[in-house]
Amino acid sequence: MAKFIQYDMDNADALCRLGKALSSPARLEILKLLYGRDLIIGSIAKELGLPVSSTAFHLRVLEEAGLISMEELPNTRGSMKLCRCSADRISVDLAGRKSDIDEIFSAEMPVGAFSSCRVTPTCGLWSVDGMIGNEDAEYCFYLPQRMNAAILWSSSGYLEYKFANGVPQNRTAKKLTLSMELCSEAPSYKEDWKSDITLWINGRECGTWTSPGDFGGRRGRLNPPCWANGKTQYGMQVIWEVDEEGTCINGKKAAQTSIKQLFLSERAYVAVKIGNKPDSRYVGGFNIFGKGYGDYNQDIVLTIAY
Q1: Rounded to two decimals, what is the model's pTM?
Q2: How far apart are CA 46 and CA 43, in angstroms?
């Protein structure tokens, strides 16, 4: 797989190191020599007809720029350094970024694409074409067909999703927003069936939203013909926002958890867990609506501003 390094005007030191590394014909020859194979310093010096000391200097400059790496290995007479390329391609963004303009990474996760779960009856999954497996059967949440689910529900427990983290390594996340359509879960439906639904991000609790009920008194705007009346029909759009000041749910402060406490830069993914805490006042389950069900034509939407 090709190794790619991005440089930009916001990191002047790295850009200057790159310029220095590429300013010598000898160092360019070393990069060509190392492309596709690993060599020790003595072999590089011999092939290029350079003193070992000069070769070592050029290699340090290339290493400081991030273009090569050197690994120390044991040798019969001490140790030797094995050199290899760290990049196949580089890109330099000369435009830079204005500090007052945020960039956005956004991803939409199908409600059936969860990575782990714990569910209890009443529970089930449906696609826009019909039921997936059987209702009130936990094993159905492990069927491959779960990926097609557009609505799912459980009387308690949780679901966890892993979103790709598209924030560049050299940028700092300022705000995370998570949006989904939710309601409680009661047998059939019950308009006043409350449920405390909690969100965790990367293992940190990010506030609890209390659903006022399991709504079925009217038909959901998007529900397909296969979905019968007399059971859950729609939910409410719930938006969690985590920034430097803490966490809000639908614009109201809900927790002290801040964006820094999520440690987003440490993982290639963002772990999102939604469900009922066992010790909540209202353990009333949850329905999660995706595209094709409920009132909002969306799955679970994660947005990060950086």
Answers
A1: 0.73
A2: 5
